Amino acid sequence: MATMKIPMTVPSPRVDAEQLFKAFKGRGCDASVIINILAHRNATQRALIEQEYETKFSDDLRKRLQSELHGHLKKALLLWMPEAVERDASILKQALRGAVTDHKAVAEIICTRSGSQLRQIKQVYLNTFGVRVEQDVESEASGNHKRVLLAYLNTTRYEGPEIDDKIVENDARVLKKAVARKHKSDDQTLIQIFTDRSRTHLVALRSTYRSMFGKELGKAIRDETRGNFEHVLLTILQCAENSSFYFAKALRKSMKGLGTDDTALIRMVVTRAEVDMHYIVSEYRKRYKKTLYNAVQSDTSGHYKTFLLSLLGPNV
To answer: Coiled-coil segments, which residues (predicted)?
Structure first.
């Protein structure tokens, strides 16, 4: 469920476009007006505003936002404007081919999206950047980390609720052997199971592994794998069981300690606001005894803070 609030009566795209045009006039721009409009329109409404703005003023709204805004607010609003698949493709490109490869962002986009979403992202990535996402993964990742990402991108997984208990039990035994011995063939077994099985199957596998061997599968992965390979396997496992907790935990980490990881904070708030942020907000409060709203409020400032809080909705 989404958290950003759309007014009961929404102005027409033409009215919104005209108000945005006025907000850009004069010295500087009226960021409050821009936020009040764009933070409270869904993806379809934002696309219609963009079309109307270009038709009426012969100007590209995103380019105007690029030139008028600054800092984290500009980054957040520009990421907010596209529809989800275009946005995910853009995040992936920046994470893979930016100045520094952001492996956690890559894992987040690839391993938390459904098979149908990944197919769309791959097509948009190719159409937009003229290269297959697999080619950029091949270039920027390495070893088992690369293998698991490529397998996840290219494997068609069953996404229904049914499971086969015998296959689950067999997978548990195979995984026990795979994490107990450090051979390449065992790593390949890990990759095959984690990228081939449905999320429902992985949830059952986690429970069965615990029952059969008295140890959490996640701990076994942490004990026997390292680095980006470990992170991507745990991302797949955690999102299969409780994606809301995965994002709540990642959001907390982005604001924990000295300084804020604004890139991660913006990415997660923007990409989940129209999807499942309601559940993430609830999970955050349950796990950390503090609202996500208050956490973001204390770690950000100015119009940037106003925009993110608008996407989060009420302080609950």
So the answer is: none
